[in-house]
Amino acid sequence: MDRSFCIAPMMRRTDRHFRYLCSLLSKESTLFSEMIHANAINRNHPERFLNNSGISNDTVLQIGGSCPEELKKATLIANEYDYSEINLNLGCPSSKVQSGNFGAVLMKDVNLVKKCLSEIIKVSAKEVSVKIRLGVDDSDINEGLDYFIEELSKIGVNTFYVHARIALLKGLDPKENRTIPPLNYERVFQVKEDFDHLNIIINGGIEDFKMAKDKFFKLDGMMVGRAAYDLPFKLFDVDQIFFNSTKTNNSLLSVIDEMFEYIDTLNFKDEIKTKFHMLNLFKGLKYAKKSRLLLLSNDKNDKIKRELKDILLESEIKAA
Ligand SMILES: Cc1cc2nc3c(=O)[nH]c(=O)nc-3n(C[C@H](O)[C@H](O)[C@H](O)COP(=O)(O)O)c2cc1C
Whose CA is nearest to atom 10 of ligand 1? Predict the structure, then answer.
């Protein structure tokens, strides 16, 4: 799997509909699901959470949890779906997630993490990876982090997505935890030097993809979250920059056609979600506000599509 450019897991964002949009913009990026708790997979209709149909990009399923048995059960179910990798979330700092004893708080308990991962690895049909922070609260981000990675690598985890900042579990909400603790890319470079045999993918604050390619060339890839969601238009450049590929020769006009074809297959609730994910597609265009209002309107889809295309054709940005 080529992880040169990955689109980060984001709750309420990287659902199947946003992933479908991403797949039209970049054929080569690795996509991530939102974090899905093991019990959501085990208890409810799993296809509600796991459906990834229509997406040909490598897609990583991110799961959350800290009960080895539950994680094992969820993995067995996930084996039936077309994901390329299973990823355990060890980086989410939200208080709700902490109180459920999963996400970033697990970085404080390497033995429990090993138990969880061992059960997942035992049954997974796919590679198993983790997404981590540099540390949590006052944990040691030098030897402590090395020890954590070393221990996980001993049980067969070879791929680490590293959000290049610590998480502070008390006093900061998740949003603040994505901005206030400073980014420390140097520490991630050091991890790669010390663990050359592992796949180390860097995450956090990446906005300029071309610059990032040069800056992070020693690593095994990068993961981009907010910049991909807030400006999906930029994903058009990814295949060319990172994969020297022109497989995605879609234009914004053809993306709109394909998105509305896709929307026609959805129920009303999913249709609304999908249109919401499309709102940022038009950022920067002269008529961005008009496009957003159209997507939020109750107009018939045919009319919305037609008017969006008219707007694009009139707009300053090259649409085709
Ligand atoms: C709205 C939102 C939801 C997120 N949900 C998840 C999640 O479900 N799992 C996870 O590992 N990280 C989650 N993250 C963190 C991102 O994956 C990423 O690590 C973080 O945003 C830093 O990358 P960026 O600076 O490129 O956005 C979320 C981030 C945002 C903005």
Answer: 9
The domain locations on the chain are 5-243, 252-314
Secondary structure (3-state) at 231: coil
Q: In angstroms, what is the span from residue 299 Cα to ligand 1's centroid? A: 33
Helix 143-154, helix 110-123: angle, nearest 10 = 30
Give yes or no for a contact between 7 and 223, defined as CB atoms under 8 angstroms apart. yes
Look at residues 34, 115, 14 and name the one whose alpha carbon lies nearest to residue 72: 115
The distance from CA 210 to its chain's CA centroid, rounded to whole angstroms, is 19
Assess whether the C-beta atom of 64 lies below 6 angstroms from ligand 1: no
* Active-site annotation holds for 67: no
| Spatial separation of the C-alpha atoms in residues 159 and 14, rounded to whole Å | 21
5-243 placed in CATH 3.30.230.10 = no
- Given a contact cutoff of 8 angstroms between Cβ atoms, the answer to whether 6 and 221 are in contact is yes
pLDDT tens digits for range 236-276: 999 999 998 876 667 889 999 999 999 999 999 999 999 99
Tokens of 135: 């540390």
Predicted TM-score of the model (pTM): 0.96
Any atom of ligand 1 within 6 Å of the Cβ of 16: no
Angle in degrees, 0-180, between the axes of helices 252-263 and 16-25, rounded to the nearest 10: 150
What tokens were used for 213? 């390619």
